[in-house]
């Protein structure tokens, strides 16, 4: 089973998928090896073949390039639970059809200002379709991999639509609405998340609180909830049988096992049957079968069966972080609780699991680029029994009894009150201990630290166990290669339609623009802050906001709030929030950090926001970079009269490659070899303009486009080449 699981998981790490002929050869070879009883290599090949076949099927079901950016009339049925965020509604459309083209089976859509939608309704929609893509940054969430794992073949935005058929048998959507209408001390959205796994009612602040305290697994249905419900049903029947209250004509054990399993399945169906729920149901079913037959079953057998069952049902599950965290948490508990001598007191049994899980999950959170909750062990000491013994039973019982006029709502009110008290306590704890995002390190360093965690999880009598602490501390005191004097490490981040560039010298860090903010999507918080932390940046020496447009300045407040900023400069101070305490850009000002020279320029005759952009020139060992913000052709002509009009190898495309910028005279005077373009894929502005791209190409300039390449990194002062994250090939990326 280990070999089969390894083959299924190997899909996650493939740079590309083998063609059909190779898949057939792998399958035949695997079957032959199994026939000759060479089970490990044979099952590995069989598992890998099945995973690759499913991966190719998901890739083939994606939107074709010819339809990318086109608007079509589409008919389909709404599935799942539509999620409302502000004025925007997000939902999935299944069995989508169009008269003009073949569409993927499932499409994820966003409808700004649209009417309420119900699961099960059939709609006719005018949709601007896009191929599934996502931002790509160091230690960032891979949205494109997530879409593939969800079998979503296209995304899009709805322009208009009309209802064709009302919902039929949309019981989950109806139950969710009933829960949200209950008076539960303003915690009805939290109860919907706990009972149904519907997190659409939780705000971004709610998610921050859960993440900061490491309690996400308690409020979004996990295997723990499934096991708890099954245990309650089994224990209740066993208690009734013990005191003679169970019907004697019915054998209590088969009924206890059967009802416990069907109760778990019903709860899983209510929750949408995600990966943690699948794993819990498979493991629970095996344990109950063995219990029914009065046989002892070790923990690893159901664990491996559940692992293989989940991966066989959906091999793409390994692309989701939740898969790794779910199985790792269970493996840690089994490894640390199994085979230990002597009983544990109730205090140890209460406190030790939280500490062990926090320690065991740390390497997985680290390599997945997820924050580590420092308050998680303490928060879970209270939250786990509070949710498990008080909130969840009353919430489930209240949901079950909702048809009773007053009883169900009363129980939900009690559950909401209990939940409210817990949330207030978690908020106090989160205010004192913020989550920590370890810096990115080479794989070898991570492996040493993970080995240190393994040593610490061993029994206390193991001699080498104390050596785990110095290995784990590698995460805190991360060895990193210093940037040589006279060089600058430059990152153009992938923030969509906006700009954010990080410049790091040996001892200083500068951020040029902070990414866009559009409604609830703050790329300063979502992208810039995590990248800075992954680079080991604890404080910015300078944040230079070119001008006040939201695609450049939108994320500035989030960066200032999460990362210390010593100084802020902007070309348009009046348009920025007062909290930034920005200073004006002074044309001609320059300074030197670690042998690298920085110079500012701003057009004194600027008449609009774009023209007021503060331009930054960076010079390291006679190699130059020019960051231009959104200046237009008029400002470019003025810049050619300044000291910055010198040969410059690296140029940030003015105004994202707009037709009103990148004039021929400007490009010829700078004689740039590489142009950095930061923009959103399929943006409505048409950036970069085809004429501008043709101009770049005619001058022999290499264009590094964030929409095509993801985040781009190079070292100024070495005259080397740039690297992009899409150079790290994965089979789900273009």
Automatic annotation (TrEMBL):
Its main location: membrane. Gene3D superfamilies: Ribonuclease Z/Hydroxyacylglutathione hydrolase-like. The chain crosses the membrane at residues 20-39, 226-246, 252-277, 297-317, 323-343, 355-374, 386-404, 411-431, 443-464. Pfam families: Competence, DUF4131, Lactamase_B. It comes from the Bacteria. InterPro entries: ComA-like_MBL, ComEC_N, Competence_ComEC/Rec2, Competence_DNA_uptake, DUF4131, Metallo-B-lactamas, RibonucZ/Hydroxyglut_hydro. CDD domains: ComA-like_MBL-fold. It is found in: Cell membrane. It is a multi-pass membrane protein. Keywords: Cell membrane, Membrane, Transmembrane, Transmembrane helix. Residues 497-681 form the Metallo-beta-lactamase domain. The keyword S-adenosyl-L-methionine does not apply. This is DNA internalization-related competence protein ComEC/Rec2.
